[in-house]
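Standup notes, structure subgroup. Blocker cleared on the NAI input:
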Amino acid sequence: MAQSTLDSMPGASTGTVVVTEPLNFWGGKRVKPREEKNAEPVFEPATGRVLCQMVPCGAEEVDEAIQSAYAAYQKWSKMAGMERARVMLEAARIIRERREKIAKLEVINNGKSITEALVDIDIAWQSIEYYAGLAGTLAGQHIQLPGGAFAYTRREPLGVCVGIGAWNYPFQIASWKSAPALACGNAMVFKPSPMTPVTAVILAEIYKEAGVPDGLFCVVQGGAETGSLLCHHPKVAKVSFTGSVPTGKKVMEMSAKSVKQVTLELGGKSPLIIFKDCELENAVKGALMANFLTQGEVCCNGTRVFVQREIMPQFLEEVVKRTKAIPVGDPLLESTRMGALISKPHLEKVLGFVSQGARVLCGGDPFVPSDPKLKGGYFMSPCVLGTDDMTCVKEEIFGPVMSVLPFDTEEEVIQRANNTTFGLASGVFTRDISRAHRVAENLEAGTCFINNYNISPVEVPFGGYKMSGFGRENGQVTIEYYSQLKTVVVEMGDVESLF
Ligand SMILES: NC(=O)C1=CN([C@@H]2O[C@H](COP(=O)(O)OP(=O)(O)OC[C@H]3O[C@@H](n4cnc5c(N)ncnc54)[C@H](O)[C@@H]3O)[C@@H](O)[C@H]2O)C=CC1
Ligand SMILES: C[N+](C)(C)CCCC(=O)O
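Run returned:
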């Protein structure tokens, strides 16, 4: 079935695709919504046109998906890690083979440029390939005890895990969550954001085609209500959530009721510190990479760019020049570097931040491309603010808005950089290696990029400090978040009883 959406993709252009197939997936197939009455339109951000309907799953549907995942978990968890790896490698291969089509569909639903979407899809299959590689390495420990007795540990899966995703990296988030989950022997029920429902189900079909047991990776559609049904379900062992801080808190609270494990990947307001001894051209490129990927809708963006006062004029001149030159427009064109924001209300919210009395150095206006089919799209010109305006510097804007702030000393800038409740990422540009590592040590954030920004190889752990969340995605450590240790203690002699 998915093939039909995907098969229409090679010739697809902006403004032409309509998705009509059911977007739920469990029991090894797409499942039609039980009732259509709560259907919500999903928009193509580049045109404002309706792309499909998202019909939220109710309690019975959520339960069906979870039961189907549980049945699959019982088979999958008994397979050897090497066998699971083989299936996952096949899934990675299929994604690689269909990368252009999947990327196109992602662009049509999300609005980001095709150049970026292709990278996202590549990171997705790489993540599955990486965890396939780890699946065969899962092992416990053997511990010798007195009198010939011993103990050993088994690394076991958790059971049915739930993934709840945001709209900015729909396919990639589904892969980042499912890859480690499946490698460890778990099943996953995934709920994409109601604004980007169309690509998660393609991943489900690919896993099925690769040979996972029916039900191993399920997709249920919906918003807050469906999400809360998942977090409350007694058969769910863990919830991995990507989204905003307020929703993350609710997910944690709901999960606490039945003591489910949680991973929270939340928002950020990350600092990027540029010292005067940096290589300026790289620092400027770094600041652009830190702010303008996916129209600035990236949780780990370095949106507070601290620049040492002595180099501020040169830095601003260059960064403004390059920001003005970013081609905004039809996201399916290879020449486009910035597409449309996710929705009209979100665009208005971002423009609202800019208009709050901040010193605008460039951009920050609604943008209407000349192509008539894009007239209803949610575009804006990327923006640089030279400001200390408190709202823009404190709150996560989640749009193409960079704030540039002057600083004088290392001590002062670290204190200001850490003066936030968030702690997802950070960055530093300097040629002084001691300073680079000292700053990295002192920044309160889950990641610090030195002399680059926003690269995320799948081998490297990603996650937050402070209110940006806890738990990690990517890297070896994520195995710990999708598995548990069982200790088996073996007596070789007689029982010494005190009674
Ligand atoms: N740290 C990270 O990896 C990332 C964090 N984000 C954060 O996500 C936000 C933007 O994404 P949104 O989708 O607007 O965030 P959101 O928090 O509104 O929604 C995220 C997901 O949670 C679901 N949800 C909403 N209410 C729920 C509830 N009561 N129970 C269970 N699930 C519920 C939504 O349907 C969606 O799938 C930004 O603030 C950004 O910082 C976004 C991407 C990555
Ligand atoms: C891929 N990367 C690093 C640009 C962003 C990943 C985090 C997110 O989902 O926002």
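Discussed briefly. Residues 78 and 185 are 8 Å apart (CA to CA).
Next: hand off to the docking folks.
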